[in-house]
Design a protein that fits this description.
Blueprint: E1 9-13, E2 16-21, E3 36-43, E4 53-59, E5 63-70, H1 82-108, H2 120-145, H3 160-173
Parallel strand pairs: 3-5
Antiparallel strand pairs: 1-2, 2-3, 4-5
Transmembrane segments: 83-104, 124-145
Domain MRH: 1-76
Organism: Jimgerdemannia flammicorona
Amino acid sequence: MTERSRLGRFLGVSEKLLLEYKNGGECPNDSLKKHSTLISFICDANVAGLGHPVFVGDADKCSFWFEWATPIACAKSQGITTWGLFVTIIVVFTAVYCLGGVFYNRIVHSASGLDQIPNYEFWYNIYDWTKDMTIILAGTIFSFFSKPRSPSTYRGLPRDDEENTLIGEFEEES
C-alpha cells in the first residue's frame, strides 16, 4: 500500500487561512531541525489578479513566513438557497392569506371572534380529522404492546353450569 504524500496542510485560525509546509530538508545550523514554511493568505478584494506572496521573515534561517494578499482568500457570500426562497414564499403567502382573510371577513361580513378566520370550518375539520387519526393510530399501536385479555381475567361471574342450574330450579318452581 502506498502512502499519500502531502505538500502542506491548511489551518483555519481566527478567520485566517494558513498553509503550512513542514519536514523539508535539514537546516544548515541544526541537523535535528527541518525546513518549514508558513503562508498566511489575507483577504484583499482590491488586489489585481491573484496577488503575490510577500516574504515577512525567517527564524534561524530554517522557518520562513510569507503573507499573500489575494481576493481568492475572501469568503464568498452564500446568498439565498432554493429552499430558502421556497420557504420565504410560503411564509409570505400564508401571512397574506391569514391577514387578508381576517381583514376581509371583518370588514365585508362583519365577522367577529373565530368567524374572522378565513375558511374556519375547513381548518377546524382538518384539525378534528388529524386529532381523530392520531387517537386511532395511537390506540392501534398501543394495542400491539398490551397483553390480550383472556376470559379468565373476569372474576366473580357465575359459570354457565351454575347459571343453568339456577334457571332449571326456577323453571321447576313455576
